[in-house]
Amino acid sequence: MRVMSATGSVTSLVYHMSLTPRRLAPIIWSVIFTGVNSYKIYQIMTERQGTVEMTHEQELVYSKFFMVHGVTPKQFEAIYNKAEIVHVKKGQHIVEEDEKLKHVILVTQG
Q1: Staple 9 to which of 1, 34, 41, 108, CB 3.0 to 4.6 Å?
Q2: Which of 29, 46, 39, 37 is closest to 2 using CA atoms?
Q3: Which residue intervals define the domain POPDC1-3 in the entry (predicted)?
Q4: Closest-CA residue to 41 (of 8, 76, 5, 73)
């Protein structure tokens, strides 16, 4: 989709460059739009080429809680890297009743 959009912007750029007198606003817009789309295409391609190495524990969490919802390994890696892992002792409260949460809590065991 982005490739088609970038191609359209390049075509628009060529068209507006061929007009006499040249219209600066559409030319600038086409250059910026093509640049942004090209950068996003590069980001997507780079993300797809990367490999993700997971520990056994990470693989279990990914397959049980994330993979079933269509989360890619690369997306899981980003989420996991931002996560704070907390081990709670038996009987310890995780959340108090009526407490407003500021974060997502995922209980994986227990």
Answers
A1: 34
A2: 37
A3: 2-104
A4: 5
Task: Return the residue matching tokens 């524990």.
Answer: 57
Whole-model pTM: value is 0.56
CA 62 vs CA 29, 66, 81, 88: distances in Å: 42, 5, 13, 20
pLDDT, tens digit only, all 110 positions of the chain: 888 998 999 999 999 999 999 999 999 999 999 999 999 999 888 877 778 899 999 999 999 999 999 998 989 999 999 999 888 998 888 888 899 988 888 988 87
Residue 66 has what DSSP assignment?
I
Place of tokens 């628009």: 12
**DSSP letters of 77-93?**
HHHHHH-------TT--
Q: Under a CB-based contact definition with an 8 Å cutoff, are residues 34 and 14 in contact?
A: no
Give the CA distances from residue 51 to residues 14, 17, 26, 85, 108, in Å, rounded to whole numbers and listed in that order. 38, 42, 40, 23, 24
